[in-house]
Amino acid sequence: MTAPVAESPTRTMTPALARRPPASSRLIALWSVYVLTLRQHLHGKRWMVIAGMCLLCVGLVVLVRATALDFPPLMLEFNFGFMFIPQAVLPLIALIYASGIVQDEQEEQTMTYLLIRPIPKWALYSAKLFATLTTTVILVVGLTALTYAAVYLGSKTGIKEASYRALQAAAIHSLAVVAYCCLFGLISLLTKRILIVGILYALFLEGLLANMPFSIRLATVIYYTRLIAYRSMSFVSAVPGNPDRTTDVAAEIWQLDVHTDPALLDHPQMRTCLIVLLVACAACSVLAALLFSQREFHVKTPEKA
Amino acid sequence: MPIFDQGYQHWKGHLSGHGWRWLAIARHGVRIGLQGRVFRIVLLVSLLPALVLATVLSIWSLIERKSDLVGPIVQFLSSMQILSPTVAADPRQYRLEVWTLCYNYFFSTELTLSMILIVLVGPNLISQDLRFNALPLYLSRPLRRIDYLGGKLGVIGAFLGLAIIVPCLVTYALGLLFSLDVTIVRDTYRLLLASVAYGLVIIVCSGMLILALSSLSRNSRYVALFWVSIWIVGGLASTILEGVYYGQVAASQMSRPPEMPRGRDARRRMTPADLEKQQNWAEDFQTRMAEASKTDWRPLISYTSNLSRIGRELLGTDAAWRKLSELQPAQMRGRVVASNAGPLYPWYWSAGVLAGLFVISVCVLSLSVRSLDRLR
Amino acid sequence: MTPVPQSLAAQSPTAPSPTPQSVAAPRSIVEFHGVSKWYGNVIGINKLTLRVPVGVTGLLGPNGAGKSTFLQLATGQLYASQGKIRVLGQPVWNNSAINRQIGLCPEQDAFYEWMTGWDFVHTSARLAGLSRAAARDATERTLDAVGMTQYQGRAVRGYSKGMRQRTKLAQSLVHDPQVLFLDEPLTGTDPVARHDLMTIIQRLGSEGKSVLVSSHVLHEVQTLTPNIILLNHGRLVAEGNVRDIRDLIDEHPHHIVLICDEYRRLAGRILSWDDVEGVRVLAKEKGLMVETHKPDAFYSRLPQLSLEDGLAIKEVYSDDDSLESVFKYLVNK
């Protein structure tokens, strides 16, 4: 029993079958995914939360400067630029965006529209990740610039020096947020509870264990970014209320024993830190792309029994 | 014949009053919440502080009865200078203070666990209804908005009540049973009422806030992140601001601290005069910090600090520390109070912040959860 | 060869010989060979072997039959736990190149709600790899084809259900695929929208596209195509022309209704025929309900009956050739 033959089609199928999409059309498709993801980031209320966090940061700096007139700018920069932002704001920004790379599309059930396009799955994930990195880096650079402006505008520090420090800080923060995004993007493919895992990671691993002189801190992003910051920037600041005295505020707070090991030989060098972070980002991204390519995305069909 | 009767409209029986309609929503929410394995584990973990509290109160009650069972414990605590001889001699005199501090520590631990419980169950409450357009399903029934919101708040209330209020009541009863002394009720009934009141403050304030956040977005993940931002980022911001402030106070009001010798051996070789110098400086430091904290508004930025401040006021923690500090030598009393009492700014500042957040939450909910005739 | 039950295959006088060699040059768009798909302990598809032919085909089955699983397997969203799947001769899982020839109109009502209709279809065209100019042209053409040109500037969140279905259909067509999978395209639409969508689908079929339509709305699928695939509990129950399938269901005799004023005399007359299994009198309609296993033979004798005995049969009809009756017989077995 067979179905009756349909009316002859107006075009043959064989030429279409033999035709692979040219490289240019694949690039167009990938670019479209990238642009689509960027546009998704602009919609919704996510950016309002991020803007709120940026304003909070800047507002706090302004508040401190208004209430503690002789507070050294470098110490203020350290407290907000290298304590508050890296420990609280960067992981949150990364969690907000990276957790949604796949899960947002799944929850909105729009993943289907991407999966049925002539785009390899690993490339689809990579394009979305790259768009997420673009968004988060732009946000972080903006946040850092605003914070530094709030810290140094009107202070005795020269604009050139302040700008250079802002640039360095922005680069370090961007590297940190890229690492967090790659990591959280991978975790979001391994578990639905990316939020809990991400918060626990940020609180305990990055917040607590990174401050302890144990090997576990080698597995944290913040340890490497702190070393990069310490090795590339100076954190010797005047003590509040006693301008004649200076203190290396970063070494003190980050528990870097510069008295017995001034060159920090016990800690990785800057190049090593950079390589470790970049390799970790690449590894997380590749693994996540691989996982994505092998994963099924169920709509109307059960995920498991 | 055309069909007129639809749904419940044909029901000629008695409809229960509005007083209990929220319960159906709360019951359903609790059932859904308990389905999550992670949530059940966290809920069980949140009951652990209650176990510790019950154990401590029971042991204290036995100490009051001078029971032989706790003899070794009393000896151990005395040797570690945790239990003063004065207290060991007449524990009943310090009954209220000890109970107050036990409840204070219970609440300080439970507050953090409550925040985690809220992160797990709170974001879904209204955001999922918005996502799946379930609001008309609720509001097309004989349910008012307040019934709906009451039901949702009831879910938070059920879980936090189970973690906070129920343990307070049960541990109070256990302490009473172990002591076999009815005068405990006379001495500590205010503490029981205060702890229930504090529990209700946590439930209502946190519950309304998370409901308001949940009504702002259809994606519960972002609601949870928003809640975490308020809790953790606010806390961290407050800590940094306080660090800056107290650093300023210390720098402007105090001399340099005496040099602390480096290394354990060097510290062992310190003379009594050096040690006294260190202690005096520390005492002076603590006292000045305590004074400065009376006008320090910075803790108001931290949501949990505000709740803690209200809790300390309701429970009378500061008064308990003041009484216990009388057991210390005169020169140490200020330091004991200063290091344990916490920020001393007026409690009504925190009450104002929490009330303000409550009002904002109500306004947000009023705008976000619209009744059926206003739904687009 | 289609995996029909042996009894059906053996009894069909028109069924071709069940050997692969006798099948003509491949004219199938989708091939499933021994495909199974399970989710833990739940079997979605159970050893399914079939070929979906060129043209418009209806995919039918009750809830939980495996239609969604079938479509998701065929479009490469799921991978088969067992067996092989080929679309246009190529494997689908992780083969993104084949997606250039496939269009899917999914069942879920999900969009990028903040986009306009034009934006949504244009983005779909770009995602398919079309250049900017080609995507623009294709978008305008496709929106015109589905009748959405007038509303293309409005945000999707403001669309009615029918508009949303049309927009979904447009995104599946914009890159001019050879094969279209439509998952319940008529669900939730009003009669006017339903009629328009069906016209579009029929036109697509006539233009040479192969369309596989999954639907619950049986009489509309019947209007679209006589070729169906019927699934139940993850298995293939029947495949092919509705009428042929009906003929082969020998367990259920055909019911034919005859309206005649002298229905009792007619009853007596036709009871003598061997192929008549039973007759029921429909006194109110002044007719008879006849059960027969050989409807063609029965129909051929009716005119002679009128001529010979003067029995004026006013009306003859049968609901049995409908998809609904086929569905009912096979699914409720």
Strand content of chain A: under 5%
Number of domains of chain B: 1
Shape of chain B: globular
The description of the largest β-sheet of chain A is: 2 strands, antiparallel
Structure annotation, total helices of chain A: 12
The most extensive contact between chains is: A-C, 53 and 72 residues
Oligomer: heterotrimer
Mean pLDDT of chain B: 86
Q: Please give the number of β-strands of chain B.
A: 0
* pLDDT < 50 runs, ≥5 residues of chain A: 1-18
**What pattern of helices and strands is seen along the backbone of chain B?**
HHHHHHHHHHHHHHHHH
Regions of chain B with pLDDT < 50 over 5+ consecutive residues? 1-6
Inertia-based shape of chain A: elongated
- Provide the spatial order of strands within the biggest beta sheet of chain A: 1-2
The overall number of domains of chain A is: 1
SSE-based structural type of chain A: mainly alpha
Termini Cα gap of chain A: 36 Å
Q: Tell me, rounded to a whole number, the average pLDDT of chain A.
A: 87
Largest sheet of chain B: none
Q: Kindly, what is the distance between the CA atoms of the first and last residues of chain B, rounded to a whole number of angstroms?
A: 32 Å
Description:
The complex is a heterotrimer of chains A (305), B (376) and C (333). Chain A has helices spanning 14-18, 23-42, 46-67, 73-98, 100-108, 111-115, 121-152, 159-190, 194-208, 221-232, 249-253, 270-294, and strands spanning 236-239, 242-248. By secondary structure, chain A is mostly helical. Chain B has one domain (38-258, 281-374). In chain B, helix 1 (21-33) packs across helix 9 and helix 3 (48-64) runs parallel beside helix 9. Chain B starts with 20 loop residues before the first helix and ends in an 8-residue tail after the last helix. Chain C is of the alpha/beta class. Chain C has two domains: 6-247, 3-Layer(aba) Sandwich (Rossmann fold); 251-331, Alpha-Beta Plaits (2-Layer Sandwich), CATH 3.30.70. Chain C is elongated. At the A-C interface, helix 2 and helix 6 of A face strand 2, helix 2, strand 6, helix 3 and strand 10 of C.
